[in-house]
What does this fold into?
Amino acid sequence: MRLTILGGGGFRVPLVHRALVEDARRDAPGRCTELVLYDTDPVRLRVIGSVLEAQAAGVPGAPAVRVTRDLDDAVRGTDFVFSAIRVGGTAGRVRDERIPLSEGVLGQETVGAGGVLYGLRTIPVAMRIAERVAELAPQAWVINFTNPAGMVTEAMSSVLGERVIGICDSPVGLVKRAARAVGADPDRVEYDYVGLNHLGWLRALRLDGRDLLAELLADGQALTSFEEGKLFGAPWLRALGSLPNEYLHYYYFRRETLRSVHEAAQTRGEFLDEQQSGFFATAGAGTTPDQAYELWERTRLRREETYMADSRAASGGWQRDTCDLEGGGYDRVALALMRAVTGDEGARLILNVLNGNTVPALDPDAVIETVCEVDSKGARPLPCAPLREDQLGLMLQLKAVERATIDAAVRDTEGAALRAMALHPLVDSPAVAARILEKARA
It folds into this structure.
């Protein structure tokens, strides 16, 4: 089986490769035998290739790795495509964050004005990728990692239909942390999760008929023992009656988070731009594969330690738990998805898929993030309980933003771009929205 990673010089590619190597180590059926890395940056490709070489050393059956800078060569005849591109690089992310902050609104790569700017820049490239996959590998499954994952997956679905599926590691991390907080095995629990990418709620957690979510909400010590409990606080979680995705902190505590971002010495994008530039410069300067791997691992750990630092600072300041520093999560979701659609084993996963009739208030072809059953026919969203008015209202507003962003990116219409920016609940003025768009164009 051949897997192609678009954005193959990306910093987190070794996490996917690590999971593939583990499959080889245990001689898993249907495992990946060839890994193709595509990227436009030859230095990043060479460095990541070196890290992968060290990671696979001494493992019989580890997938053969091939690198290419030709998109058609990368996707032609492949079985799976992981799309993990970053249009504009980390320098683009810095601009996506700093421009909104200059107008007094939150800058973040997937949330608020920054997410709209990133989507406008990324969707045209994602559409071209979808068209080339449809032409050169029509039977391939596309697994989209590229942020903003929900709107990018929805844009690509206009070409690929149900053969593109978006994934994110935030929901699965939330389920695992909540289950562990009440002493349950995360692999055994049943759950109800629904929303959009980076905008969802865990609304039920059960094990053998026990209502674990009710138990967790009632236990203040357990509730504040994990990341989301510390972020949102027990009183607010009890008022909601659910556990929000960590990114909802930007919506529920926008003043506190914005103040924390303004007070920080650098934005998240600036930190990653500096960190990754340093890593690739050092690792690309004649290091051995083992040295490149060790440097990557140290850099990765620091990246995980500082994840969502602004929100943690806004909620009192605290360090991430050791178990949350493993990195990835999305790589394991992606491989479970691959195994399920190749028919080796079914799976129940939280994915970004076409809505169908799961949330009746949304169009059937809108992409939502929810619990799905996955098999060789693809991913099917499971029925879910009706959404509360506050949940549905926020979903509808953000879906309008996503769709306007797609419209603006595909048709290059200024009105749709202004609508996308101004309707976002974290952007409080059409005048501010217009200035942000003008600065981004400049």
Summary: The chain is about 50% helix and 15% strand.
